[in-house]
Amino acid sequence: MSQEAISSAPKTVIEAGHAERHYWRDLWRYRELLYLLAWRDVTVRYKQTAIGASWAVIRPLTTMLILVLVFGKVARLPSGGIPYPVLVLTGMLAWQLFAAGLSSTSDSLVGSAGLISKVYFPRLIIPLSALAVGIVDFLVTLPLLVGVMIWYGMTPTWQLVVFPAFVVLTVLAGLSIGIWMSALNVRYRDVRVLVPFILQFGLYLSPVGYSIVAVPDEYRTLYSLNPLVGIIEGFRWCLLGQAEGLTPLSLSVSIFVVCVLLACGLRYFRKTERTFADVI
């Protein structure tokens, strides 16, 4: 074939999907990859462990016992009329879902370096698939809370119908920060050290081991600016029927902060996504 015929022959251009009009379409097209990666993360999580998924119960249960001892028995903080183990375990349920989403998504890109450097697919699939581990752990831990509530003679009220909305808000809260951290972690590996520090500090800064009634009235409005206050107190309101900290302010702050962080995080992720394969 002559050079002229080759140059005039129709060419098929394969775009990597970076254009905005293609990216979200590609995200749907690669949904099977999302399922496969999610299943991989879940199976690897407890592979070759002696007690398997029981760790999802042992960890929050152990943390609950420590927090009950420190805040309930030693510090004797008020619980607002709720049995202290139920109060703490409900807070732990929300915190565990948030923390698992944040920690798993923040390290997801670096953990999939081999896949990123070989083939094209929307990189957002990787942090999205990493959320599956935290969701599975949450579902495993939920019956533990139900059992403790039954032990103390507590039953959910009509607010339980709103519970799925707070679960989604909690998952999005972990994702909103996690996608920031995942993109930054590709270039700055210090993020791996920073994330556990943030989670350790946030556990005590949020009302996980205590009720917001323990916070002095003059500081309660300022304290409610922590977006996790509305989320954790929302869990308690849905499951226990009462929560002093679930106010219009705390709920609005939680929704607003999560939406802003998620929108900005997606923008930053998309902006830096093209360099992942070169830098990672």
Order of helices and strands: HHHHHHHHHHHHHH
Mean pLDDT comes to 86
Q: How many helices does DSSP assign?
A: 14
Radius of gyration: 22 Å
Structural class: mainly alpha
The backbone outline, from C-alpha atoms, is: globular
Indicate the low-confidence ranges by residue numbers: 12-18
Instruction: Give a count of the beta strands, DSSP E runs of length 2 or more.
Output: 0
Characterise this structure.
- The structure is a single chain.
- The protein starts with a helix and ends with a helix.
- It is mostly helical.
- It is globular.
- Helices cover 71% and strands 0% of the residues.
- Helix 8 (125-151) packs across helix 9 (163-187).
- It contains 14 helices and no strands.
Question: What labels would you give this structure?
Answer:
0% strand
Short description:
The chain has 280 residues and is an all-alpha fold. It has helices spanning 3-8, 20-29, 31-45, 55-74, 84-106, 108-111, 113-116, 125-151, 163-187, 191-205, 217-223, 227-240, 248-272, 276-279.
